Amino acid sequence: MITCGIVGVTGYAGMELLKLISAHPRLQVTCVMSDSSAGLRLSDLYPWMETGALTLEPFKPEKLNQLDVLFLATPSGVSARYIEQLDAFEGVVVDLSGDLRLTGEVYATWYGKAPVHADTQAKAVYGLTEWNRESVRTARWISNPGCYATAVSLGLLPFLTDGLIEPDEVIVSACSGITGAGKALSTKTHHARSNENVQLYKIHTHQHIPEIEQTIHQMTGVEATVSLSTHLLPINRGIMATMHVVPTIDQTETEWIDLLSRAYRQEPFIRVQQGEPEIRTAVGSNYCDLWVYKDDRTGRLTIVSVIDNMQKGAAGQAIQNVNVRFGFNEALGLSTQPQYI
Amino acid sequence: MITCGIVGVTGYAGMELLKLISAHPRLQVTCVMSDSSAGLRLSDLYPWMETGALTLEPFKPEKLNQLDVLFLATPSGVSARYIEQLDAFEGVVVDLSGDLRLTGEVYATWYGKAPVHADTQAKAVYGLTEWNRESVRTARWISNPGCYATAVSLGLLPFLTDGLIEPDEVIVSACSGITGAGKALSTKTHHARSNENVQLYKIHTHQHIPEIEQTIHQMTGVEATVSLSTHLLPINRGIMATMHVVPTIDQTETEWIDLLSRAYRQEPFIRVQQGEPEIRTAVGSNYCDLWVYKDDRTGRLTIVSVIDNMQKGAAGQAIQNVNVRFGFNEALGLSTQPQYI
Amino acid sequence: MITCGIVGVTGYAGMELLKLISAHPRLQVTCVMSDSSAGLRLSDLYPWMETGALTLEPFKPEKLNQLDVLFLATPSGVSARYIEQLDAFEGVVVDLSGDLRLTGEVYATWYGKAPVHADTQAKAVYGLTEWNRESVRTARWISNPGCYATAVSLGLLPFLTDGLIEPDEVIVSACSGITGAGKALSTKTHHARSNENVQLYKIHTHQHIPEIEQTIHQMTGVEATVSLSTHLLPINRGIMATMHVVPTIDQTETEWIDLLSRAYRQEPFIRVQQGEPEIRTAVGSNYCDLWVYKDDRTGRLTIVSVIDNMQKGAAGQAIQNVNVRFGFNEALGLSTQPQYI
Amino acid sequence: MITCGIVGVTGYAGMELLKLISAHPRLQVTCVMSDSSAGLRLSDLYPWMETGALTLEPFKPEKLNQLDVLFLATPSGVSARYIEQLDAFEGVVVDLSGDLRLTGEVYATWYGKAPVHADTQAKAVYGLTEWNRESVRTARWISNPGCYATAVSLGLLPFLTDGLIEPDEVIVSACSGITGAGKALSTKTHHARSNENVQLYKIHTHQHIPEIEQTIHQMTGVEATVSLSTHLLPINRGIMATMHVVPTIDQTETEWIDLLSRAYRQEPFIRVQQGEPEIRTAVGSNYCDLWVYKDDRTGRLTIVSVIDNMQKGAAGQAIQNVNVRFGFNEALGLSTQPQYI
């Protein structure tokens, strides 16, 4: 068994990791950490889940020696603090915050916080599994992608790879369930405020914008400029990204669908769907579902991508990366069964 | 008192008209019609509302003679059928379906139904009050705008009037509450399906697309091409349109906000807001709330428009038009009090 | 105009008072207080509402002299603190917290806080309008009833008045929308937790239990023992109380309905309904809707009561009491138009 | 592999069976039937699920010969029609409708339909697994319990077994998610109506009332009279039953909790919980979670039971029964992982 530690187990990503790992035949959680809730028993934190007998401990690097994998399910800024103490740790680190995703100056600009050291950041491999699998296979540090960044990048990359769309006319309108805003209490996520509401937030300033542009550049060499608007919805889980792009070649809708299908033909977690998109086809699973439509009137394509922000957009992709890293079947222990209703 | 008849009083728009008119000091409903539910008492249809003693009657043109105003709150296609029988009616007709909005061929293309006669259509004045007030003042036939068309047009028109944005790069991502899909039972609106879901629909084929483009042309002379994606949300009421446009001049965000504020300075139902947009600021009222943001990185503007699809997007704007038509205070009887929580 | 002050205007009850008073032709808010948010302009707190130019001030008794009415829309415990400073205030005080509802020892037991002085408490009149109208008419201090207590008492009192049900076999299962839990941030009201959930709370310890029993005794002389279970629902507004009682006489269901109808025949805000109950018939209005059913198999009656917890259960009833107190039409400015859809 | 057929695979219970069986290592669906949708491919019906290559067939008894198990996931009345054609079928039948639950006259009274033949009904074993395991082990016909009946019976039976509560003072207030109302389109389940609403239905007439009373009698010998009120909630899944009972002996709350814990100590799917109940602890799993509280003031107990109406209340319990019937581990393939957030 691969032994795993989770730092930040009280948050949503930590909880989801716990659920996924408990269903995974080769992984086992042996250490759960939380500075704020140290001393609490895991079974008291999650009385509705089979959690075993672990107790939350404060983060201490010296306790990590036994672990094969350490998941940092901590907020950005907090991860950075722990990362600086992990030099001696010999296992695999998977960071689910954004603290290893961007290089120093870009990070500082978009997160408004101090970045980790440049050489620490450079050690991290970006864990967008489908596009960086070979690097993940040997990585010691894995920077798990952001939820919006995952949905958007998976939808755009096949089109940008061969220069099939204009890189400066990418308009993404995306929406996320409430868990995307995290577990911390806030006015925006008070039920009476968020219910029966749509809240647009971080307009032109969402930190996944540079992450998407950097990913596009890293994977395709293209310098793209992406407009992203993010809407908070009164649902618990799920991201839908509706992307409006301008093709550089003339093809039928069927040809575009074929192109997308071919790009992901081998992928266990990417499905090219037809019919009208809905967020539920992916929620509860590790799938990313994609659709593409051609507007014959305007010439534009509409690409739609949906994921479960807690699974493919966070804990699920983290496990997928661990599966790749340890040579397991990539789908091991992951859900291919959306909740749907 | 101005006497009003409502055809299609069992639908959502009919219900909302009934509610609004009951709060209006100068309007009175004296006749309610419904072919499907004729014979039913209004008080049995809406036991939770003060409705008076009316009984639903089948549509018969000869019964309409006493009416000052006839509201057609019937679905597209159904309105058309009734419209052909209204030649002798001397009062004001307000049609809330799309049957008087588009000229014949365009209508046939987008609605997939037979249009009304060209001269009937030509008699109708498009009731986007803020932009067509003078025509509404003397109209006998008023074609009430569509819900998405209202939200989008009110947001775009001030920018298109003076050629301040590129007319062919208008990308609108919009979402609507479930009432936008109507009262008819459907799989898409079964609670277990729509709840915790986002459903993208009528991709590149929504009938409000040509309505928006025609309105832009009618009000500004500009030939624009609009991309519109429409998402069905698990909320009851409200439309949010997030519009991505490319400005032709260089101005600060503050200057753009000022421009918008000046455009609507006199308008009782349009508010230019600041802060982060949410759909709730307008829901329950006849307001259209607008925001504009500049993305210094991409040069694009994001314009956001929210309305209550049942009020400003349907019954509220219909009453607003009647107020204009009869010379009342334009806000008479209309709500300026959003529900919010 | 009757000048009104609101203490605690940042909370839900304060916000609802503001909305209702702005629609009231004889009341005017001239002073808004909040210790936590003093200095904030009302228009910044509620940018979606027409609020005028008021600024929030800290609570100071000496500023209240100009006011005809002071609403305390503060939490229990906080109201008590302000009440002790209101000896010199000559206007009418309406307290929406529970701090004036119970006598000292009972208050201390159920609220776990220090009660107000016994003689202060004794000055307050219990504002269950329909049952205490004559006392409200001349009251200087009005203790506004709790939300559950309003729904339950209005349903039970007609049956207890003449000893028609067993006073010790009253089982009430009630549920409330999320606003009932207040605006303060809490785990229970984080959207991701409360959404798609039902949470049972304060089992056998809800502070409205003694309030209901005391009201029954005060209005009917009967010593009743009430079991109340309270469920938090993923909706914004509304209370439904489903009450199971044992009749002492044998009557048909129709006779029970008639009895209830007669009891409230003159009441502008109480409706005896038929058909299947739903919470929406009252939400958005000041109505209390009641139903009664007889189970011929068990002999029991099921009485159902629904209200909007923010209106009839809080701010609406407060205004109703002010209307009575100042001799206005009791329904003045209050909503008789449920939102419904 | 045990081969399974599902009749009524287009409904919610059929869909859930399909999901559960696809995760079950020993069961396999080899035949799916639906009279209304025959000819449709399963993969077109559920494009979001891994369904394999089956096509929906019309119900024909002669096609069933190869099957080990036939699930009837059809509505009441429809199941009855199929049941009459299953005399020759030699496999195990699991009926999820109510058509095998009640004897003829009682069925006719509560369902308002013609019952199946008395000897057919008599062959069926009531599949409340925890209380009828030995009979299920050898059953050919299994009548799967109703959702409310499951939640209520599991909560009450330990208390009735030894006469610890009054059998004629059992008051149950229960609520269900919208899937409980089925997939058929109806006004009550149109999102705009059910959302932000609570709807009380089938008052004193719910067909699970006689099922509960019959189960109590069958399992404990006690003749009980149960009052049940059922509320439809704006959530997708889950039942909470809040039960008010009168104990016949005097014990502390801790002793009552112990009693309940002992009763179910060996059960893999029943958990006695502490803290405040919520519906989410069970939703997404096959658990039934129970709580019990003592009200020292009234002497009453409050027993709370929550289940996922689609799992333990329908398809989950059906699989649990099949596991028992075929000698598998009772929990095989079933979920012990609630969705929670």
Automatic annotation (TrEMBL), chains A, B, C, D:
Top EC category? oxidoreductase
Molecular function (Gene Ontology), one example: N-acetyl-gamma-glutamyl-phosphate reductase activity
Keyword tags:
Amino-acid biosynthesis, Arginine biosynthesis, Cytoplasm, NADP, Oxidoreductase
Its gene name is argC
Free-text function comment from the UniProt entry: Catalyzes the NADPH-dependent reduction of N-acetyl-5-glutamyl phosphate to yield N-acetyl-L-glutamate 5-semialdehyde.
Where is it mainly found?
Answer: cytoplasm
What pathway is this protein a component of?
Amino-acid biosynthesis; L-arginine biosynthesis; N(2)-acetyl-L-ornithine from L-glutamate: step 3/4
Name the reaction it catalyses.
N-acetyl-L-glutamate 5-semialdehyde + phosphate + NADP(+) = N-acetyl-L-glutamyl 5-phosphate + NADPH + H(+)
Q: Which CDD domains match?
A: AGPR_1_C, AGPR_1_N
What is this protein identified as? N-acetyl-gamma-glutamyl-phosphate reductase
SUPFAM superfamilies tied to this protein = Glyceraldehyde-3-phosphate dehydrogenase-like, C-terminal domain, NAD(P)-binding Rossmann-fold domains
Give the active-site positions: C147
User: Which family does the similarity line name?
Assistant: Belongs to the NAGSA dehydrogenase family. Type 1 subfamily.
List the lineage, top down. Bacteria, Bacillati, Bacillota, Bacilli, Bacillales
Q: Where in the cell is it found?
A: Cytoplasm
Under Pfam families, the record lists: Semialdhyde_dh, Semialdhyde_dhC_1
Location of the Semialdehyde dehydrogenase NAD-binding domain: 3-139
